[in-house]
Amino acid sequence: xxxxxxxxxxxxxxxxxxxxxxxxxxxxxxxxxxxxxxxxxxxxxxxxxxxxxxxxxxxxxxxxxxxxxxxxxxxxxxxxxxxxxxxxxxxxxxxxxxxxxxxxxxxxxxxxxxxxxxxxxxxxxxxxxxxxxxxxxxxxxxxxxxxxxxxxxxxxxxxxxxxxxxxxxxxxxxxxxxxxxxxxxxxxxxxxxxxxxxxxxxxxxxxxxxxxxxxxxxxxxxxxxxxxxxxxxxxxxxxxxxxxxxx
Length: 247
Hints:
Layout: E1 3-8, H1 31-41, E2 49-50, H2 51-54, H3 58-64, E3 70-73, E4 77-79, E5 84-85, H4 109-116, H5 126-129, E6 134-138, H6 141-152, H7 156-159, E7 162-165, H8 175-178, H9 202-212, H10 214-217, H11 223-239
Parallel strand pairs: 1-3, 1-6, 6-7
Antiparallel strand pairs: 2-5, 3-4
Helix pairs in contact: 1-4, 3-9, 4-6
């Protein structure tokens, strides 16, 4: 079975970004003016490397154990694993490098995504779904908000192949996507789990667990079968003692 993986970009990178490719370098303004300035700055970086090698960190590493991941990037759009890209510092999450500290107006990750999707480093969402097989997508809450509208517009045949992994239960999961969120929860950190870790890498840890358990047991399973498997697995992790057998 073909398995495609997509995960959010990470702040840890193998190269340091040049100043024009840092969110802090941008002059505050409307989302239109800030995104235009960002896109104009992208060609300034001469040094580039494959996306699957640029991003670092434990969360990205979890996704990479399953397959070379497509990257859902707040700076570059959807990026193929082999795409040669520059380093940058920009996110739609609150904190350092938050692009919305430069934008006058409400926080709207979906609008930012639409504004920066057309650039030389980005590929269409069709690339993630081309061919057959399953698509595993690990997202933080802000990044789910960024791409949810585009995912909702996918045909039902594509959504039936998509499994989404997020930390907790995001409050604003669109109706067409809610059924695709696999029901992982805090029991991932039970003593019986081999993939314990912080909330920051919960989604890729859940994706990795799913690939090694549910997908192996039910390679041709549908969304409801996979969700039921995960629910049972959470109960198993809750009840197996630390000294008991590992799944």
